[in-house]
Amino acid sequence: MTAPERIASLDDHRHDWSRLALATGHPFASWEWNSVWWRHFGGERELYSFLCRDESGEVAAILPLYLSARRPVGVARFLGYADLQSPLCAPADRDRAADALRLVTRRPHPARVVFAERMPCDDGWGERLGGALMHTDDLPLLRFGGRSWEEVLAGLNRKHRSTVRRKERRALERGLTFRLADDPARLADDMRALFRLHEARWGDEGTGVFAGGGAEFHLDFAAAALEAGWLRLWLAELEGQVAAAWYGFRFAGVEWHFQGGRDPAFDSLSVGSVLWTHTVREACEAGLDAYHFLAGTELYKMHFATETSHAESRIIGSPAVAAPIGSAIKLRRGAVSALENARRSRSSRAPSA
Asked: Using CA atoms, how far apart are residues 135 and 330, in angstroms rounded to an integer?
């Protein structure tokens, strides 16, 4: 194979990046996600991304990396911290991308290892890359398989199916309406409603996804995603107020659930749960392939999920260098796992409280 070529700027090869992101199949591979993330969080870090060409000279794969550390050893990580991350390529070029990822950990390159986090297991990266497995995340999803919404509901257990219908009927009778944010002029206000409702619902129990610069990042990214045509920001409104919000993406034939929030003042009407069900129905009726819940096996996801996929994090590089780094990462994860488990336990209830 030809040697990987280092990318000087994320603005370079944008067309190839967008083409390969669609082939990769998740929104976190998109040029928009990575470029906005790098602008907000790159800081003084060094871009360490590469492209790989096939025998005809066509760009066949992109490695979206940055240097997270140079000392005591060079460590590279994926750009755009997200529930799914991976090299960008079509399925037929995954071997090529895996070979390139190993090559960029060898001298004279400055990174000795790549901490490759949350790579989709179904794509076979673990088998191709080897290295040390750090941990595995569960990612439930609902495959529609061409079914109608009534057929999807019929696949639920009887009690949950009855609960879904009862909650929706009661909320609609009280005047709950749904609005898809599709106006660029009011998008910032709609996103701020999401931030406010996320904070109102979760408070200190939340993931902090919109804290520490996260809100500014998502404001910019949502605008880019709206322009690209795959932003999905749903707002449930009641009594002249935004009662709940759902934020996700429609990308590569799949609906991707990212975050949401609700006003606890309307919990008696289960507005969060009703809105979430509305987004599943909209995706089904649009003829999409699947609805992806991303990381976490909260009960409200598992009620609808038809399967659970997985993402794994690995240390890639020579064993002599990768092993001690892997041990240090495992030790650090062990120190915070109790806190993570506690947060997930508190977050495992349905969106309706």
From this structure: 9
